[in-house]
Amino acid sequence: MTxxxxxxxxxxxxxxxxxxxxxxxxxxxxxxxVLRVLDVLGNPHLKLPKVIHxxxxxxxxxxxxxxxxLLEAGGHAVHVHTxxxxxxxxxxxxxxxKGGRGELVDDAVFADALRRVGEANGGxxxxxxxxxxxxxxxxxxxxxxxxxxxxxxxxxxxDSTNVVPDPAVSIIMPISLDxxxxxxxxxxxxxxxxxxxxxxxxxxxxxxxxxxxxxxxLVSTADRLSCPVTxxxxxxxAHEEFGRLVYQDEFGLADLPLPRLLGRHQYANAAAAIxxxxxxxxxxxxxMMEKAMETVEWAGRLQRLAEGELLQYAPPGSEIxxxxxxxxxxxxxxxxxxASFEERQARPLYLITGMIxxxxxxxxxxxxxxxxxxxxxxxxxxxxxxxxxxxxAHSAFDAGLVAEPSLxxxxxxxxxAERHMPEDAAPRILIGGSLYLAGTxxxxxxxxxx
Length: 450
Prior knowledge:
By secondary structure, the chain is α/β, with parallel strands linked by helices. The protein contains 15 helices and 17 strands.
């Protein structure tokens, strides 16, 4: 593969690199440091428009995207904070535009906020994520908007986003095993951490939950805090009927287009967004819902590569997908999506997988045991936390798959091309296992988010 020329780093990227030499990259679960810095900055987190706060193990990014699309369909200006980014740091901050679609933060605005937060910290101990969270609050407080969608980085109770005292609504998406070293090794412990974003008396929307133990913790926490709570499948729901999405809640029923984001799991994500935007106090029309289903976008989540640099290495006609899902729960919903694609058009499925060492690879791979033809495990460039591809291949074997390590995504695509017989159906290829890998692929392919 021809090496791509890296663009010169932006002013914001230079400032982040400087801060990363001074402060740790990891997590240090506490709110004290970010509150100290925010106080010096004049408490920008208390000067925000309506906040939609999103936690959960899986589906946070998708429900955030649906909430944004829904509000923008109603002409609202919506600021959005997400993490991690795929390619550029700027992706973490989308600035709302009244009557239009939000745009990634301007580099000069971003760099200025980084410098101001760094100065406010005064050289004291703080993590980079806490700095970046404070940056978001500062930027969002100074640019008028109608709403802020705030995605939790990890956990909830001690996540640095959890300083907003009165969110318009808190959303808790599906709970699964992830970040066990920080959050606990049982789903009910993880659910308790995620439930930490609930605030007394403020509305809560609970997304589709796989585990009854997690749901019990979430509902009991909402009840203890006297939060008005709505639960997926009990108070609101969505399902496919005759190629349409039928959404229903206590306010009525809507017959909508299927969402642009692929996979049946997105039906529940779309439903949670609709119910949450209503709970936040916004009027939601059927026209808004229709437009949102047709315009929603979320890079790196079941994203098909229809063009770009990497396609030249795959067999002609290959169907190539990128997804950043990285835990057992995500593996199950992605595998379900691949199986539904197989029902519509049969193709051999190859996995190209890279993961970092905070994930549980056997559980992820196990979801594909009955549908994947072969697995190529690859390194994640520029990640000190990647699982060695040889070790990752052994995890795939442990899950019942046949696997081998490869040097890169491009090399894995070449291997698939060499194995492919022209008379066979062109393969379906899923590149995934890590948001970091998804970001690298989108960068190398020339299709970075905008």
